[in-house]
Design goal:
4-stranded antiparallel beta sheet; 270 residues; alpha+beta; 11 helices; elongated
Amino acid sequence: MCRACATDERAALFCDERVADYLRRTYLFEGLSGEQIEEMVGGTRTVELETGRWLFHQGDAAARFYVVREGQIALFRQSDEGRESIVAVVGRDEVFGEELLFLDEARHHLNARAVGAATVLSLDRSRFRAYLEGSVSLAFRVMETLYRRQTLLLDHVERLTLQNATQRVMTYLLAQVEGDDGPQRLELTLPKATLAAHLSIQPETLSRVLGRLKECEYIREDGDELVVETRAMRSGLSCSACAQRWGCPGPHARLLDPGEWPAALEARSS
């Protein structure tokens, strides 16, 4: 390890030796030999992005794929009118763009932009693809990541088609907390406009939903963090979904407004 990057974390992001160590610890590259890792590092660039900076546009030639070292990258589609639909927000240590490795003439099917300041590794697609052609185990690693990605996208589609705005926000908040029960602290790392686009709702709708959740005491603010009452929120989410989920038991013939949930839950438990 060089002297500079041993004491400077920013310098370490650009140090070839540290990048090689990082790739060895990343699941997708664990199957590569030491020589292959060094070859990958030789074709790797570290890219720093300011807030809102685009990494690539839909339709651009996909000569490279990426790993997030710091920050977050939004992957999204944009309509002719400029409205955005965020498919995913990719965070630290996550790989994206690798789904195009199997295509000969690949072009990006999404836009990519930094949510805040971000640093990404830009990797040579053709070099990694050559390793795939010679390693069945490496190809299976890529296929496993693609399967997980598909599952996440299907969950996202389900939320957009089967849940209303309130349910989407509640599901998102519950997915972000680590504990399964009791109050859990959560720092929202996405700007409200980005989160709203990810949930396919308007920013003002997101603000109203968060306000109603506070009124119902499902969440409360504590400085820069939210405290999520996970048990109450899970019960409320289950209750509000009764009118939409096939076979769900319960007396509700319509979707309840959040203000009605506490009384409804009390009635169900009595």
